[in-house]
Amino acid sequence: MLDIKLIREHSSDLTKAVKNKGVAINIEKVKKLDEELRSLQTQVQELQSQKNKIAKEKDVEKGKKVKEELKTKEDKFRELNTELQELLLQIPNPAASDVKIGKNESENDVVKKHGEPTKFSFDPKDHQTLGEALDIIDVKRAAKVSGSRFSYLKNEGALLELALVNLAMDVLTKEGFIPVIPPVLVTEKTMAGLGYLEHGGKDDMFSIPKDNLLLVGTSEQSIVPMHMNEVLQKKDLPIRYVGFSTSFRRESGSYGKDVKGILRLHQFNKVEMVSFTASGEGDKEHEYLLSLEEKLLKLLEVPYQVVKMCTGDLGFPAARKYDIEAWIPSQNKYREVTSTSTTTDFQARRLNIKYQDGDKKEFVHVLNGTAFSDRPLIAIIENHQQKDGSVKIPEALQKYTGFKIIKPKA
Length: 410
Fold this sequence. Notes:
This protein has two domains: 4-89, Orthogonal Bundle (Helix Hairpins); 105-406, Bira Bifunctional Protein, Domain 2 (BirA Bifunctional Protein, domain 2, 2-Layer Sandwich), CATH 3.30.930.10. It contains 13 helices and 18 strands. The chain has helices at 4-9, 11-20, 27-57, 60-89, 127-134, 139-146, 155-174, 188-194, 220-223, 282-299, 346-351, 375-383, 395-401; strands at residues 109-114, 137-138, 152-153, 178-180, 185-187, 207-208, 213-215, 230-233, 239-248, 267-277, 304-308, 320-328, 333-342, 353-357, 360-363, 365-372, 391-392, 405-406.
C-alpha cells in the first residue's frame, strides 16, 4: 500500500507510474475520495464537539438532532473509507526511477553476461530425455499419480537437489542469514498483506477454501509476514533470512507452455532469501542479494545472464527486479532460474512492519531473492552432459552428493 501523502502530492506522477506497470487505476478518484473523507472527518469531529456541549446544556431536542446527523456522517465516513481502502489496495508499487519503461518481457535489458554458451561435439539432449535415461527424473509416473506439471526426482536426482539446498544454506548462513523452514500455508489475509492477490494474482495460487488458507508460491510469502505488526530496532537491521520450503503454483497464465520436463511445475522446492532493511539501505541490499545469486550460480559452472525487468514485467509489489537466466542448450537460449526484487516499503505498509530509529518509527524495506529452486537442476544436467549420456557434477556440489558423475543405468 502506498503512503496517502504520496497520492495527495504526486497524483499525476503516480498515474503515469501505474500506467507504466500496465494497471488501470483511477488515481484521481482515489484523490477525490481522500478529500471527501478528510472533509467528513472534520464534520464528524465538529458534531462530536457539539454533542458534548449540548449534553452539558441538557438540551434534549437539539441533542437528538445532532446525534442523528452525527450518525449519518459517521456511516457515510465508514462507507467511503471502505471504498478508499479497497482502491488503495489495488494500486501497485511504482517502479524505481532507474527501471526502464516498457510493456512486457521483450523490452527487458540484459545488463551482464557470464561465460559463453556451452558447445558440444555431439548433439546435446534435453534434461527430460537425459533424466529418464539416468533414472533421476520421472514425469510420466508423476502424471499418472498427480496429473501434468508434477515430477519425481529419484536416485542421484534427489540427492542432487538436496545438494543444491545444502550448498545454498552453507553459503548464506556464513553470510549471516538466519535459516528457517517456514509454513507452506498462509491465511488469505496474510497473502493480501503481501500484495499478491490483486489483479488476478489469486488465480495462480492453490487454495483450501474450507480453512481460508493458501499454499505459498515461495517461502518469502510466509517469511515476510513473520514480523507483521512488529516494530524492529534499527540497530538490528538488516535482518536476513534464508528459507527452504516446497512451493506451489497453478501456472494459470502459461497453459500449454513449457510442459516438458521440470521447468514449469505446480510443485517445487525452493531456497529463498528475505531481507528487512532501513529505508535508505534498500537499493544497496538489492545489489547484495543479486551478487549472492550470481555467486551461487557461478558455483554450478553454467553460463548465465542478468536481466533487468522493465516496468511492464514487474510484479505488483516489486519496484525493481532482476532475473538471472541460465543457458539451456536444448532450447538454445537463456531461461530464468533465479530472481531478486525490492518491494521498498510497499509490503511493510500493508503488513505494518516498522523499525525504531531514535524517537521516530519508519516502515522497513523488504527484499527477496531466490537462491535455488528446481530449475538450476535443468542447467546442470544439460550443460554438464557428456557424449555417453552421463552428467558431471559441479565441483562445489560433490561434497554434498558424494559422487562426481551420474552414469546411465546398465
